[in-house]
Amino acid sequence: MSIDKDTARRVAHLARIRVASDDLEALAGELSHILGFMEQLNEVDIDGVDPMTSVTPMALPRRADVVTDGGYPDKILANAPDAREGFFAVPKVVE
Amino acid sequence: MLDITYTEPKAKTIAGARDDWELVIGMEVHAQVSSNAKLFSGASTLFGAEPNSNVSFVDAAMPGMLPVINEYCVEQAVRTGLGLQAEINLFSAFDRKNYFYPDLPQGYQISQLYHPIVGEGEVLVDMGQGTARLVRVERIHLEQDAGKSVHDMDPNMSFVDLNRTGVALMEIVSRPDIRSPEEAAAYVVKLRQILRYLGTCEGNMQNGNLRADVNVSVCRPGAYERYRESGDFGHLGTRCELKNMNSMRFIQQAIDYEARRQIAILEDGGSIDQETRLYDADKGETRSMRSKEEAHDYRYFPCPDLLPLTLEQDWVDRIKAGLPELPDAKKARFIADFGVTEYDASVLTADIANAAYFEDVAKGRDGKQAANWVINELFGRLNKDEKNIQDSPVSAAQLGKILDLISSGDISGKIAKDLFEIVYTEGGDPAEIVEARGMKQVTDLGAIEAAVDQIIIDNPEQVEKAKQNPKLAGWFVGQVMKATGGKANPKAVNQIVRQKLTF
After folding, report:
1. How far is A58 from chain B (nearest CA, A)?
2. Interchain pair B100, A16: CB under 8 A
3. How far apart are the first and last CA of chain B?
4. Where are chain B's structural domains?
5. Hey, are the CB atoms on B308 and A66 less than 8 Å from each other?
6. How many angstroms separate the CA of residue B281 from the nearest CA in chain A?
7. In chain B, what residues touch A16 (CB-CB under 8 Å)?
8. In angstroms, rounded to a whole number, what is the distance separating the alpha carbons of residues B342 and B354?
9. Residues of chain A found within 8 Å of residue B100, distances taken between Cβ atoms
10. Nearest 5°: phi and psi at B223?
11. Contact call for residues B37 and B55 (beta carbons, < 8 A)
12. Interface contact A70-B72, CB threshold 8 A
């Protein structure tokens, strides 16, 4: 499977990453290359093998239902390009 | 198992210009999990806090922050599954659903597409006496809620509050088993009732605690039955999804509008585009959300930050053993143990707090009488003041005492209503109030006789008339009741009046 220029443009747009038109061709090539590697992996017969999710046997760590975090809106907003009255302010999003 | 016999309601039929059409509806209900902290962070879930104050660096998706699952949220999802008689999946896993939106700082929502925590279950939706629809639940999965965008504070900007970001949601997905707008609303009502009984979701629709996406399609009569027999969705029409409905009334209006829109297109020879639509309550119509179409390419993949979630059967069994009595069982028990009607039992069990109150009043007393007082007097009075049972000025113990005073013959039913009003507005011990204010029913026959004699002496003309027309005895009874301030035992008064007038 290979990625063409249009697919590369679409994926970039979905991720809201700006890619100049001139760069799309090269980007599509790189993405295709990655998929090519995956196809190579696909040749391995993995019937009856469970997906490995961890190198060492581990259970999902869990937390108790206790409030231990939050309460620092200033820090949350510190890097925001624009913040007003405690909110992030972004260009108007209209539904 | 609970034995409830019922008949299924007929599907709603809408007459188009040429043909009859039936509705097919499936729902995705997003129920906010009742918990202190968020699904993957230690920030508070409290509603109504200052903007961005209940936000941790995990919720704001700061680089390097990792999610750690809140085990109570997992327990709540399992409890919900058990409450809907669903299978619990001891193995489940989290996936990333990728889309871009300003109130989603991660750029993806952590959800469970491939391995949900809860499998198939069911909800029995009451549709009036002896009628109910069994709606199959396909799955329930855990996922993160998004933040909130405010669009009306500035003409050029949208304002984003991340307090809700990362709060745990249960998405409860039904099969397309709902067949009318009324059933759709009743399904949400029943689901909300069960969740509130379980304590897994507060179900406050105004706060967005419970929101529904509604899938609507139409088909010709008979097509739905063929789908149920074969499981082949090809028998059904193309569906449209109505997003984010948060009121029972709007759900019904939106479905009705949407069905008629689809029928008009089909009868015109057109075809339905599968799409997401939004209901505009002001205009009473649905419109396409084209912006959402592209975003539907969610590029799901397993979340690399989270290991699969594995549960122990013992742990699930312990949760099951601790389940409260659920609405259908409670309703059946109220009918059997307290002798109340099916309708009254429905009213009394609609909310768990109401049911507990009634049970306290009815225990060891006449169940029917208790039901009458709780529904007609108490609920009526609370409704008038727009109060909840939690804020009732009359406790179950106080109302119980009022009923005891009636059954012991100390007060009449009529005086009991006055007493109820006093307890409601002023509080206090009902027995002491009766004593202190001389509200006791006069059962002393001598006193009643004297009162009757006096009325007869004072009204000779009425006595003459009454001899011609025995129905006028009622007038005398009324006068005696008035003279005794309503405290005379009505039965005794009636008897004595009839004796004295010698009918």
Report:
1. 8
2. yes
3. 59
4. 22-294, 323-436, 445-500
5. no
6. 15
7. 100, 107
8. 16
9. 14-16
10. -65, -40
11. no
12. no
Q: What is the full DSSP assignment across B333-390? A: HHHHHH---HHHHHHHHSSHHHHHHHHHHHTTS-HHHHHHIIIIIIIHHHHHTT--GG
Q: Which amino acid is at B368?
A: K
Least Cα separation, residue A6 to chain B (angstroms): 14
Cβ atoms of B52 and A77 closer than 8 Å? yes
Nearest alpha carbon to residue A87 among B366, B259, B163: B163
Q: Which two tokens stand for residue B97?
A: 């659903």
Q: Which two tokens stand for residue B223?
A: 């097509």
Residue B503, pLDDT > 80, answer no
Among A30-44, B181-195, B236-250, B269-283, the range with the most confident prediction by mean pLDDT is: B181-195
The residue written with tokens 């965008």 in the block is B149
**What is the number of other CB atoms lying within 10 angstroms of the CB of residue A49?**
8
The answer on pLDDT for B1 being more than 50 is: no
Substitution target from B59, B62, B158, B296 for chain A, most A beta carbons within 10 A: B158
CB contacts, 8 Å: B33 with chain A: none
pTM of this structure? 0.86
pLDDT 10s digits, B266-300: 999 999 998 899 998 889 889 888 655 555 689 99
Partner residue facing A66 (CB), from B36, B151, B308: B36
DSSP for B430-493, written as a single string: HHHHHHHTT---B--HHHHHHHHHHHHHH-HHHHHHHHH-GGGHHHHHHHHHHHTTT-B-HHHH
**Chain B closest CA to A11's CA: distance in Å?**
10
Residues of A in contact with B278 (CB under 8 A): 95
CA distances from B4 to B137, B185, B271, B320, B326 (A): 19, 21, 41, 21, 13
Listed in sequence order, the residues at least 6 apart from B27 whose beta carbon sits closer than 8 Å to its beta carbon are B172, B173, B174, B178, B184, B187, B188, B212, B213, B214, B215
* Nearest to B212, CA basis, from B189, B248, B187, B246: B246
| String of DSSP letters for A31-77 | HHHHHHHHHHHHTS--TT-PPP--SS--PPPEE-S---B---HHHHH
Residues whose CB is less than 8 angstroms from the CB of residue B183 and which lie 6 or more positions away in sequence, other chains included: B9, B25, B125, B127, B133
Q: How far is A23 from chain B (nearest CA, A)?
A: 22
Top-level class of domain B445-500: mainly alpha
Do B151 and A91 count as a contact with CB atoms less than 8 A apart?
Answer: no
Higher-confidence residue: B228 or B474? Answer: B228
Q: Is the pLDDT of residue B148 over 80?
A: yes
Contact between B41 and A67 using a beta-carbon 8 Å cutoff: no
Identify which of B478, B479, B490 has the alpha carbon closest to the alpha carbon of residue B409: B490
Instruction: Nearest by CB to A90, from B42, B57, B157: name it.
Output: B157
**Distance spanning both ends of chain A, measured CA to CA:** 36
Reference B108, options B43, B166, B55, B45; nearest CA is B166
Q: CB distance A76–B73 less than 8 Å?
A: no
